[in-house]
Amino acid sequence: MRNNVSETDQKLGCPPPPALSRGLLFSAVLALSAVSALSGCGGGSSSGDAAGTPPSSGSPAPAPIPAPAPTASSPEPELPPTTTPSPSTGTLPTGGGTAAPALPPGLQLPSGLDLSKPGAALKIANATSSATENNNNGPDKAFDGSMTTRWSSVPEDTAWIQFDFGTKTPIGYMQLAWENAYGKEYAVLASDDGQTWYQLRYVAGGKGGTEEFFNLNANVRYVKIQGVARGTQYGYSLFEVSFKSPGSDNTLASVVSSATPTPPLGSSVTSPAITAPLEQVQFTLPDGTLVTRFGFVGRSRHARERGEDWAEIGYGTNDTVDANGQPRDKGPGAYLNFIANYFKNRTWGVEFIDNSRVAGVTKPRIIINQYYQQAQRGGGHSFFRRFDDPGVTGYGWMSPGTLLDNTTYTDGFNDLTSCPVVPKPPEGALAKPNTGYNGVIGANDGCSVVLDNVPGHRDVGPDANGVLVPTTTVASRNLKVGDAIEFTGSFFSSRAAMDAIGDSGNFRYYTNEVTYVVGSGLRPWYGVQPRLMNAPLPDETLLGGTGSISYDYADNATFMFQQPSTQIGMQNMQRFTEGRRWIHSNMWTGDHNEAGNDRNTAAVGLQGPRFNQSTCFACHINNGRGLAPQVLNQRLDTMAVRTATLDANGKQVPHPTYGLAVQMNARSQTTGALQDWGMAVRVAGFDTKTVTLADGTVVTLSKPRVSFDGPTPSVFSLRAAQPMIGMGLLEAIPDADILARVRTTPDEDGVKGQANLVYDPETGAVRVGRYGWKAAKVSLRHQAANAALLDMSVTSPLYPNRDCLAGPAQCNRNKVEKGLSEDDLQLITRYVGLLGVPAQRSLTSGFPKGVTPLPYLDVNPTQVAAGAKLFASIRCTACHIAEMKTGLGTELAENRNQTIRPYTDLLLHDMGSELADTLVESQAAGNQWRTAPLWGIGYTEYVAGTGVKVGYLHDSRAGTLTEAILWHGGEAAASRQRFVNLSTADRKALLAFLNSL
Length: 997
Prior knowledge:
By secondary structure, this protein is of the alpha+beta class. It contains 15 helices and 41 strands.
């Protein structure tokens, strides 16, 4: 923490100061240690005197004086580790192995094989190997039936052992029993002649012990274990290797599948019905009073605290540069991360009652009510940041306003929580519209606060270093329409109050810092001079409408795609956090992937025997994109591979082995142990080509080739996880607006655009597709349930059993397997629907002089603006539509009537043969892809985190935005060529614009 507070105070982490009445009892002020414990950090040190005297809202703020240290009776707020969970990337291969081809159909198990009985042990006729450790540890010792003898190679990574069955033999299962010297990385190969080898399996990150391989699907004479990397300094050492014939216990039988029906072209569309919103976030009373309601959740620190000290030149330590003045990053901070058990009793609601637009009001005031889930101490509200003090860079508050009952604050000196739980107010009306409290109509009780002025403060001017420092005094004045007020609250309960509701966790937290514009409501903000003083972001930067996410000054970029809409409702915040818990829950163990969170017992055992990942977060890294293919033999289980085959009539149906999608991992449903059932899809290599731009720059384009451990489908499509942000806003775009952009004839560049019409899996109605790479999902509910089934093997009310993987005819709704309940699915859907979109970073932030800006906030507005014009002039906006408006077809009021800038038309476009595959989804052909939204694209690498490689386009083939553009073909070919022809400066400007999104 970097402010004018004592070192001890910094360690304790003071909460924001309470808003105090001008008439706080003098006797209470004398309770020095108690006051400093409550207000020493934000109130006493930044806006009160050394004794903790509350500021007078009508007078200038005095010079800051370090506050006394809080007493031991003041428990510190939660300060969790600032590291984010590591993405579930598995263990990547070294790349040192080879990629032998997949087993051809002629060497796979013959059709009609009897699998009704368990597999039987197979006899090995002979074995050979590379050089052994000594004559006593030859390859014959690996199948002599004894666990006291072993085959042991010389210490070479490329050592191997080969087994000969004497004749072509159907094989379903293999077990390896390693001695302590095991294989960390190796390939399992098969051959019918001992010369030409095919890959059955590839292991990276082997752990030794006993390793099993099911569903080998091989009809061969030879099997080889080919080493790539040893787990120890010694050679490979195997006690025993055994095989079984195919049987009911080790081999998957084919299933009968059925096609998903496709609506005829020109079908009439059924749009969702308009219903009352789940919760109102803003409304106007008959007299013109504006009521704004929003939700808060506990946070660890303040909004402008990074992981290092930083201050103005001459006014404190600046760790953002080293001794030589070079930029360095010691962050991150801990503002946007989520506290332990954030979903449990740690959200609350805030209500602003604003009469500034009521006819005849000359002195506007705002009444602030808060709605907690447990008793709290009074105060804790803070308004107006101390921008006029060069010693305050991370936080610090002026804190005007009147707490209606000061005893609710002073009672806190005795550890009393005098603010009781107040029931949530009715929709569209105040809780106390006629009575109020103590003559203040609309105030709930003595814990309410009234704000009616901009506090007195100092004007600022530059010193010798150009730092804006206090000069003259600015008197207090009345509020007026358009004033921007930075507001924050705090969660300040007590041990006793939390124990009373059965919660043993912490009871003191910070929360979000928001900007309220008098007469309008909440607005996303950014920091301007002096010292990142808050200012509302202009409309053109609000990619996600007024719910866009404010600029991040805490260096928390990995959390930027995990934030709720700025406008989120009081009760929707709780729904959001409970939904987030599901996104982070392991669907087998119920464990949360962030430390300190209670197990989600409802998630325990939901996952089926085969799956890709156990959490949504494992593929959507930090709610962003998935891990890109990058190395030979990489297992692609953080991506999705959709599969199909053609029936006798040439119609596409789910694959008889995989169904609608490959589920690459498996576990025993009795022991929970992970198993290898031969369902992985791997990187088999990369096809590359080069493109030369007009300025001579040569760009290498690469796309992955894949291989299957099991049968290779005749139809398949590799799909990367897409960012989860803004999906609720896309759901709110009216069908008519999407359909109005459809062209039956191409424009001058050949651009058309087609809506994908899809049957709703629940109602059977024809709907406009919006989600997925081919817009084949009609709603967030559809998308979430489909992903749960295909990617995590978790059922839901839409797909009640795993037979649904084989198509609708097999999806018997009377067969219900344990899975997500209706409430669970709703929470997940609403969480995704409420995720906010970061505002465009096209404005210069007012960092303190000498402080190095965060990389993603270090922008050139002139260059970004020029890039935006180029983006339009080369006609990228023919598909990536810059602006849309949402309608009323959503239950989330936060997403209604918003002007958004997603840069998509949600239509299908022919993207050319190089991006095409053969998979059809409803009316979308293999060469057609939905225009991907571009909002947030500049955050891609920052959200993924250090050392995590993500990619662009449907199969993550593009490592950069330049590569992604150069892969565009078909309807985008003309725009791509214009990009190729750009000058170096223009190309950089266009990329700067994209990176600002």
